[in-house]
Amino acid sequence: MELFKFDSTGPHEIQVTGLHDYNSVSISGITDCQGKVEDVFNLSESVYVYPIITKDKVFIHGIRSKTHVKVYDMAGRIIMEKDIGSDTNEILNLAAYGTGMYPIKITTRGNTETFKIIKQ
Hints:
The chain has strands spanning 21-28, 36-43, 48-50, 53-54, 57-63, 67-72, 78-84, 88-93, 100-108, 111-119. The protein is an all-beta fold.
């Protein structure tokens, strides 16, 4: 575990590389009233999904082979479904949907990964 501490209110960036399997990121303020963001994400075969918290667009990068994407609402209904070709990146637009959490299932070569996206 590595801890980063910032003492100012300006913008900051932390870049992490070399991640494998399941990884956890937690961001919090000095007091609980400042809120806390915490999520677990899975990186496999270099496919990654970001941002975890969004107002509209979600980016999928690192697709190397034919991929199937399904986006669900919290009731488990499929609200978006796409087939994506190999060696491409994809943008999912959630602007038309309400606030909440949207699980995204990405299936490549028979392996399925689920990412949780929070729409504000």
